[in-house]
Amino acid sequence: MGTICFKSEQELPNDKSKKRKYSLTSLNDNINTQLVASFTELSDVSEDFDFFSMKEPILFNERCVREQLGRYISRHLAAYKKLNSKMAQFNTKSQNQYQQATNKKILKKLQSSIIREHPFFKEFKYELRISTPLRSYKDILKKVYDFNWENLEFKYNIIKDVIFENTDPNQIMITPLFSNEDQYSKLEENMSIVYLNDQGILSLKRILWSIKENNHLIKFNPLLKYVIQFLLCNFSESEVYFMIQAMLEDSQSILESDYIKDDIAKKLKFHFTLDYSSFENFCALFQTRVITACSRMKQISDHFSQVLGTSLSKVFSNLIFKGFYPAIPLIAHFQIMLSFIKDGLRVLHNVGFSLLETHYKSLLQCQTIEQLNQTLASTPTNLITSTTKLREFFKVGFKNKLKKTAVVKLRPSQKQNLQIKSQIYYRPKVREHSYILQYNHFELIWKWLPNHLKLLNPTQIYSTQIDGYSLLQMYLKAKEFKNLTMLLIIKTANNIFGAYCDKMLNIKEEKLYYGSNESFVFQVEPNPKPYYSSGLNNNHLFVDHSYFQIGSDSPAIYLNTDLKGKTFSSETYNSLPLNEADPEDFNACSFDALEVEIYTLSYI
Q1: Which residue has better confidence, 414 or 348?
Q2: Among 62, 261, 359, 381, which one is most buried in terms of CB atoms within 10 A?
């Protein structure tokens, strides 16, 4: 497997300076060097300039991306000339501040502030958003995130070993998306834009799982996956993980701090909203700010509510869920991510304002939500013809000063009445080898389990490969765990299916069904689908000496002493036959169990 880092670990900056000496000169020299290189490069490139001409790009569709990006690379030699005199003055002033600093803490804080006040940022923010090569931004970001970049790979490997214990981290199917998508088994299907290859997608999934397991601050943020995707184009997997962790910790500390007195400034300073409530308020704040800043936004807001039955905050929320794509062209998507990483959430407000202002007349003519989506999706067509139009698009949002008025108490009509399901993501630790299931099958089944069971792990108590093809042996093994839950897995010639029951197989004196409505049956292959209790009856599990069955009025699963069975359309679960249907009788399907495994669920 190849690496996705563009520089070797030996090239990473070393924070442990000799004798703790801090050199602003080297910092400015480094930035100057990067600027000279980037502007010189931009002056020589042709129209098909490769925006990602690094060692090993991980773009999902490299040709498509290059074609789009090549049109927008602009040349800014004049910008570099303007920087020369400003940098000379800035270097002298900053060097004096460095000499007056007395301890490491002050030096560290000063270094961070100097980066933010550097002429490259202060005077040319717009140029940064429009044309700075990613390789230059990478080095600057490493200075902004002032932590030890050494041994990150080693530390990250330890984290992965703990999270993916006894499992292959390359076989990840279910991924926590920190949003309200129900179908989260395939990450790519829940992203509107994917420009990573298969290796990059795996890295994205591993990072999301690592964040979920090691940072309980963040519960809801639909933008997170897009930010990680962008960073993976510039940094290694371990670097991206620790950068995201730094952003999350910074977001939490800003929310809890007292030194930012302006409530709106506090809401827009950090990078990530951490839960659904804060995300909802952030979107509602966007509506309040743009209406206050511009009378045209008030007209759009009124049109949305009266004609389309939606609101500005709802439209803005949907844009974030899609990473602003396809409402903006790909090159603009990269620049938004760059600006967001530096400036935080307020960038998203500015981009939203740019979109609404750009489509002002067209939006007022929309009569349906479909027309609204088509109008926003037309942005790439409008901007793809020239770099000038792209610049004008950014100028609208980034140069317009959205007013920092006092926080307006949100009206109930401004809040989105979205019901977000509380989902629990957990990767089960599978310690015993299964002769039936791959690890991604376990992930799939754990997705179907009730939430309060998802933190449990499977323990294999019976396997035909180990314990023999005997119903009696199965009962003897199950007897040791009669008070625990049961996960039954059956493999036939062409199918894998099974059942979860909240009670174990147990021959009872009274010949009655037992179990609760938590029980369900499912098919894993070829068509993964769970069938939950219909509530029509409570006949879940019946056990006899010579057979057992799950479900009544035609059981969903029936298995006898020879491990031969049948599966029917069962009223208990409203299920179809779980095995491939018999050609002569669609409603009854006989099968020979090639393999059977039983698991119980526990915290062990």
Answers
A1: 348
A2: 359
